[in-house]
Prior knowledge:
Elements: H1 8-38, H2 42-57, H3 62-80
Amino acid sequence: MKPKYSSYEEINRDLKILKVEKELDFHRVFQSFDQLKDGFTPYKLATNTFGAVSSVIKGSGGIQAFLITSVLKIIFKRFFK
């Protein structure tokens, strides 16, 4: 549905609003890209891997899960910091 304008001021007002909305969308896209990029750092990948590994290990027993998770954290902290 096309808006009907009765003056140039209405047109200019809508153009200004559209320009601001465009700038906001542009900044949101770059912010999302930065967040995605930050998610692929070695430390974040290691942290996500720990979460997945620990959820699998938790079913195997408390002490075993604790030991394996602790060893993996030590290894990843040394290599990925």
